[in-house]
Amino acid sequence: MNKFTRNFPPREPTKPVQDRVEDLLSKMTLEEKIGQLQQVDASTIPVPDEFIAKISRGEIGSIINQTDPDICNAMQKAAVENSRLGIPLLIGRDVIHGFRTIAPIPLGQAATWNPDLVRDIAQVAAREARSQGVHWTFAPMIDISRDPRWGRIAESFGEDPYLTSVLGVAMLEGFQGNDLSAPDSIAACAKHFVGYGASESGRDYNTTNIPANELRNVYLPPFKALVDAGIATVMTSFSDIDGVPATANADLVEGVLRQDWGFDGLIVSDWNAIGELVVHGLSEDNAHAVIEAVTAGIDMDMAGGVYEAHLADHVASGLIDERKIDEMVSRVLRLKFDLGLFEQPYAQPDLYPPLTDKSAREIAYQAALESFVLLKNDADTLPLQSEDVRSIAIIGPLGDAPHEQLGTWIFDGLAEDSVTPLAALKATYGTQIKITHVPGLSTSRDRRHDQFEAAEAAARESDVAIVLLGEESILSGEAHSRADISLPGAQSELLQRVHAASRKTVTVIMAGRPLTIERDLPHTDALLFAWHPGTMGGPALIDLIFGVHAPSGKLPVTFPRSVGQIPIYYNHKTTGRPPVADDMVLIDDIEEQAKQTSLGMSSFHLDDGHLPLFPFGFGLSYADFTLSDLKLNHWTMRENESIKVSVKLTNSSVHAGATTVQLYLRDVSASVTRPVRELKKFRKVSVAPNSATDIVFELKPSDLAFYRRDKSFGPEAGEFKIWVSTNAQDGLSGEFQLAI
Ligand code: GLC
């Protein structure tokens, strides 16, 4: 028995949560309050006795990185049955793109442009995670990512604020459902507030310098969308923004998130990010760092131990008012009540045994299928006709790599669950097609050529060579930024040698980021970009290659020609000298002793020009889609009026298929410079062979709103251009006036 009499809170679920919070808070000592603000790493096995003792003394409110249901339940039992007030633990885990059933990385999920599918993926993950004892995931990651050198672009939904907002809300809904206390819901966490994706040179944890207008028109909107959608928690970023680390940035956290937007959920630091304020050189020591973080509005210290070390002293000295601590603790307790932890705190592993649920695999399969982006398909190389193919060579280090295809941020997924492309090909066509497997390289980083001859021979003796290249999963994700984002190792050389020997080459690239693959394109007849496709990547890929389904993926991020073009993104500003293709003279066309102004005086690179290799929103299909008949029902939009934009989408091929129709706008002149295009609507549409369908979008003045020069938010009257397209570079255009 511990030294206090037992005083469990009343199990009265019907009592309003706030009453229960206040009732419980009134019984808590300062030490017990501070205990609730600690999240502690619980991965040490066997569990130290002192760890259980700390829990029993009410000194730990949350644990992270423990998902063995028996261990979670033992820790939970110590909290619920041994501590004086029986306050249950909040158990957190990074469930980023699946718990045990692994879906494509979020960047691949973004390539599906399918919010319903993203929601289903998160729901499967929530079901599997909650039953194993997890209450809280640290996702969706909604950092706008314009720099593919940054390893964490893999976890993002890409470069666009609108696509990121729509998919982030869908993921939130999948995780949280409509009742956090349900046995298949977990609390979600919008991260990393804010601007982490702007880390200089794409080097992780690096400085970010984001002007206020850019911050509010590009990086903040997805967080606002998720706050409005009811996100349960927010995590602040490691990075400093304009000289003040997000974890100490009261203007943004307390000012924008809490005061302007009214967010009253739990805010957690990133891993030891409070302690890192000292390393940043913002705080002279941890005691000062704690003051900064509490002032900024950080409720919970993730794995830093600094709240535990200094809060009581700061309250005793009057530096921090205990009422502030009460506010922070109230948000932790409210989340625990909302999650139903006082009624049912324990893991229930038999409820949803991971992976046994057939629908989980089907969703992972569908997600992989819709995530693949067809970037090249010369002479309709794909789909292969299985009756015409007698032999296939599977070549490359990622053709049978169950661990790699899962991608980054895999804590609970298992390589043994993966179905690889080789396994899927054998299972589906092994009796009718001769399959030869020659990796050619041992890993994606392998530089040795000693298997190249065997790879060439296999290609030469087969009807088709399917070459699977890319990045091992460890080359993407947190702390895994790359300065050179071409295919690692000797993969490009392998592809060239195989292509020279083969009659037909199909290349599949698995990676956690866009790669600079311009030099590889000439050495393949078809190219599918597969991101890291997850558990069911193999079956999905084989079904796509053989035309069981058509590819529908669209790029959620721009593919640069070279690293030198970065940052390159579609929604850039026009500048005072926008590039004009006809005026530009590129480096190979420059005459000798050319005159100073003879190359065109506009914004482009002499070697790479101004266009990317592949634009945002791009992706081919087996079907042949065309857009026509763009119509607006008004040419002037007035206050409280909308404009309907219609277009016809025709599929003039024998293949069924789906594509995403995208609506872009440009605010031609405004109080601040505006992007040349901004995605405002999109719709994924399936069209049967040789048929057409009409698509109608509705635009309102609120769709035109932005953070203006006078620091207010709203639309401005004037001319707008509009494009309806299947990528960010071309499309049918029109214009209208906003008259407000
Ligand atoms: C990591 C990441 C964060 C993650 C947390 C817990 O360092 O920055 O995204 O949720 O720590 O693992």
Can you give a write-up of this model?
The chain has 740 residues and is α/β, with parallel strands linked by helices. Helix content is 27%, strand content 18%. The chain contains 19 helices and 26 strands. A hairpin with a 5-residue loop joins strand 23 and strand 24. The termini are far apart. Bound molecules: alpha-D-glucopyranose.
Counted by DSSP, the helix tally is 19
**Derived structural class:** alpha/beta
**Molecular shape:** globular
Q: Got a strand count? A: 26
Characterize the main sheet: 6 strands, mixed
Summed over residues and divided by their number, the pLDDT gives a mean of: 96
**Terminal residue distance:** 70 Å
Bound molecules: alpha-D-glucopyranose
Quaternary form: single chain
| Widest sheet, order of strands | 11-16-15-14-12-13
As a whole number of angstroms, the C-alpha radius of gyration is 27 Å
Low-pLDDT parts are: 1-9
Fraction of residues in H or I helices = 25-40%
Strand content: 15-25%
Give a brief rundown of this model.
The chain has 740 residues and is α/β, with parallel strands linked by helices. Helices cover 27% and strands 18% of the residues.
Keywords, separated by commas or semicolons:
740 residues; alpha/beta; 18% strand; globular; disordered N terminus; binds alpha-D-glucopyranose
